[in-house]
Amino acid sequence: RGSRGPYCNPILNRRVSNLMNLLPAQIKKDLRVSVEALMLLMDRIIAQINPPKLRGYSLQFAVIITLYWLAAGMLYRICGNTFDVARSTVCDLVLLILNAIIRLARDVIRCPDAEEVVIVGENFGRMSGSPVFLQCAGVIDVCQLEILCEVERHDEYINQKLFYSIAMEAVVDHNAKFININVGFPGSCHDIRILRHSGMYLNSTYPPEGYFIIGDGGYISLRRPIVLVTPYRDMNLNEDQRSFKYHLSRIRATVERAFGLMQARWRALFHRAIEVKLRKAVKVITACAILHNICIDAGDMDHAPVPVRRPPRPPVEEVSGDAFRNLLCMLHNMARRQADAEQNLQ
Question: What is the annotated localization of this protein (predicted)?
């Protein structure tokens, strides 16, 4: 007689078993996060999940399938085949976990308090090599993330590079950690327009008194309602202005690094058009920004309802920051010359 077959067949394949057993190499390869970051995420969202909504699956399984969905470029079919579940189940679990992650935004993406902003300034001052940047509280920039063409008002989403996108405005600290984000503006919107519609600008919530944030040439220097310093434009700059611009650019690279880290971690997602509807694309981008911060906290650094009509806000008074930028430039060069003089005396 022929040999007997196995008494039973395993429900999960080897890859899924390794993921459920938290095998570090498999977790990092397939989920793009470390085991420590995965455990930290589950600890933070466990209180927000209603067990009946998990449809009989464990929280660990739901989180793993959501991260796999992000790492695989949001392909429900691939996730369903890998985990041997229906695509509708993948869709329900992903939406549940995405909403739970987004509810963490207020705690995970937040501005530094009075003690933390001092540390942020000290690190930016060290990075720049100039004492005037000890009062730098963050770096701001906008990243364009490609999406599929929207049927309605599609022309508004064509950016200057001629592809459809939505904008993500972010302020980061010295660790390339997001401390403020604004996601969802059409790709055609200018950087300064996005800033002027942000709560940080309208309510003057950040930076605190005595501090400033740094932006690129897409912004303008401001003294009020927030203090924003931008580099000099390349037009007949003198030696002092070139020196100031060089030291400022050493800090400004931090926000580009933050965007690069987030997009590299979810490269299958961001290196092509995000293939979901606009509202869900905003959720996905916001969730990825939150996961970026959670990974940094865990030491993992590799890699439509009808809108409510609100009354218009009164215009906010703007005061040019050019004079303040000139003052910083002067103080920077005074400190530089003093240091050179002391070095020559030695």
Answer: Nucleus
Q: Quick one: tokens of 16?
A: 């899924």
Confidence tier at 268 by pLDDT (50, 70, 90)? confident
pLDDT beyond 70 at 193: yes
CA distance 294 to 265: 13
Residue 233 DSSP SS3 = coil
pLDDT of residue 11: 53
166 in the same domain as 295: yes
Are 131 and 46 members of one domain?
no
Instruction: Write out pLDDT tens, residues 40-79.
Output: 999 999 887 877 778 788 899 999 999 999 988 878 888 8
Q: Residue 287 sits in which domain range?
A: 110-299+316-339
Q: What is the DSSP pairing of strand 165-172 with strand 178-186?
A: antiparallel
> Does residue 2 lie in a domain region?
no
| One-character DSSP codes across 286-336 | HHHHHHHHHHHHTT-----PPPPPPPPPPPPP-EE-HHHHHHHHHHHHHHH
Distance from C-alpha of 101 to C-alpha of 103, rounded to nearest angstrom: 5
If asked whether residues 58 and 180 sit together in one domain, one would say no
Own/partner contacts of 95-99, CB < 8 Å, gap of 24 or more, are 96/49, 96/53, 96/54, 96/62, 97/45, 97/62, 97/63, 97/66, 98/66, 98/283, 98/284, 98/287, 99/283
Do 214 and 174 fall into the same domain?
yes
Residue 182: closest CA among 154, 172, 136: 172
pTM, 2 dp: 0.85
Q: How many domains does the chain have?
A: 2
Please name which of 215, 302, 218, 214 lies closest in space to residue 262, comparing C-alpha atoms.
Answer: 302
Q: Report yes or no on 72 lying in a domain.
A: yes
For the stretch 271-310, pLDDT in tens is: 888 888 888 899 999 999 999 999 999 998 865 333 343 4
Average pLDDT (241-261) is: 91
Is 204 found in the same domain as 131? Answer: yes
Among 37, 71, 103, which residue terminates a domain? Answer: 103
**Cβ atoms of 142 and 168 closer than 8 Å:** yes
Residues forming a β-bridge with 165:
146
